[in-house]
Input
Amino acid sequence: MRLGPEPPIVREIVGVVAQVRSWPTQTDDTNQLYVPVAQNAFSFASLVVRPRSGPAEALAPVVKAAASRVEHEVPFTNVRTMDQVAWDAMARPRFRAVMVMTFAALALLLAMVGVFGVLSYGVQQRTREFGVRIALGASGGTILKMVLANAARVIGAGALIGLVLAAMLAQSIAIFLFGVTPLDPLTFAGVVIVLGATAAIASLIPAYRASRIDPVVAFRSE
Output
């Protein structure tokens, strides 16, 4: 039995290896040291085997049998493939990603419903105007382009304001991002394309209704 501090352990450096991530989302390097098991035994150890061909699951019985012949008293548990290890390691980030995507899809649906409602109300308020234009010779295509152009101006202004605010607040969520910068241009461009397509789809029905207005019915409703 030794009293007092343990003497320092002297080790010889035999090689340097590349940095290995301890978890999939790790971004900063951490100090790591590899030592022989005989010098620093742990309560558990991992054995990694890579097959030359065929599925990795088929190697499990063979590896366990070979290891048991070497170490009879060491139990072998928790046999998994690297795909399973990666799947388990990404469980929490994957859950957060699914939650964010779900709420984003709901927000996109609400935006589509909102655009549809606003444009439908605007078309209803301008029914008499569209009826007069059609009575004076305007075609359905002209009315359709007019409604879509008005919607494009409103949607463009909203998208511009949203992008400016998103750029100003992007740094506040930088710690939650992995593999992408807060001001990633592809992300911002993708958002504009998705919102533009969503708004265009929501604008088609009110614009089509405006182009099909019957002047007689429009004047009669007044």
Observations:
- The mean pLDDT is 79.
- The first helix runs from residue 60 to 70.
- The CA atoms of residues 49 and 63 lie 8 Å apart.
- DSSP finds seven helices and no strands in the chain.
